[in-house]
């Protein structure tokens, strides 16, 4: 099985390539294709990256080669990690329009090339932001069931980690999902949270303890207030900012801790790479596993009692042919209402850019 990483020379792309090899997701006879851009700096860098990866992992490295044109991309799984990234300066926000302006043409270019020159059986995992726009653009030309945005899975792992941290346990004992938009539009689905080793009554008691009397009706305002506080602190003392985040509820920490990590200058490449490689491994493994991802829906779920069409992060079943179905049980009223609001925002954003 072969994997192509578009944008392999970037921070996230490099981390994904290293993680694929270190975890031995690709065997010695599999192929890792490092994709750069002809005429750009990455055209040189991917050749150096190839040598560096072989130097580090020669004992178990897969076959590694380089491609510089979209039409030369050939793989079973294509990881889209190319394009502009979020700035790391303290106090800077996420400008989705700026990201879309640069990255939408990249989404379209590679989608067109895969549609014309690909096998039709590739599974595309979108890492590049805005993830939802990437999924919408690539699903327009490719089989929508073979296009998955990894943002919801990364945010799900972060949600589980924050719950585990609050309870003093390992993340492996926590299950549960988020939905919605990658980043500030995350919708924590507390109704899906389960703690291994606890019955339903004990689990419900722990969730009540973690949430208190809060619900999602004011969640967006809480996120905005926390991010504003972090932006003020981060420019003066980053330690104070991280201490402040530690004191926030787990649902809010899920969103603002990565925001602060990115603003610290460290970025979030390793966490992103880990979540991405888990999705790649799931596809290549041949089994069906429940994860979460941004996908293009056509009535598979209902929000506010109405069938929903559009791109949204949801729990999904993923296997070798991409995603096959959505697993979204009846939501709590505040979850359904807030997810509907986020879905409307995503739809307005993607429609505006896709129709321009």
CATH class of the largest domain: Alpha Beta
Give me the strand/helix succession: EHEHEEHEHEHEEHHHHHEEEH
Mean pLDDT metric: 92
Overall morphology: globular
Q: Which strand order spans the largest sheet, edge to edge or round the barrel?
A: 3-2-1-4-5-6
Helix content: 40-55%
Strand content: 15-25%
CATH architecture of the largest domain: Alpha-Beta Complex
User: What gap, in angstroms, lies between the N and C termini?
Assistant: 37 Å
Q: Please give the domain count.
A: 2
- The value of Rg in angstroms is 20 Å
Q: What is the helix tally?
A: 11
What is the CATH fold-level name of the largest domain?
Answer: L-2-Hydroxyisocaproate Dehydrogenase, Chain A, domain 2
- Helix-strand category: alpha/beta
The counted number of beta strands is 11
The biggest sheet amounts to: 6 strands, parallel
CATH H-level superfamily of the largest domain: Lactate dehydrogenase/glycoside hydrolase, family 4, C-terminal
Low-confidence stretches: none
Provide structural commentary.
It contains eleven helices and eleven strands. By secondary structure, the chain is of the alpha/beta class. The protein folds into two domains: 2-150, Rossmann fold, CATH 3.40.50.720; 151-356, Lactate dehydrogenase/glycoside hydrolase, family 4, C-terminal (L-2-Hydroxyisocaproate Dehydrogenase, Chain A, domain 2, Alpha-Beta Complex). The strands form three sheets. The protein has a six-stranded parallel sheet with strand order 3-2-1-4-5-6. Strands 9-10-11 form a three-stranded antiparallel sheet. Strands 7-8 form a two-stranded antiparallel ribbon. Strand 9 and strand 10 (306-319) form a beta hairpin. Helix 4 (131-141) packs across helix 11 (333-355), helix 5 crosses helix 10 and helix 8 runs antiparallel to helix 9 (250-263).
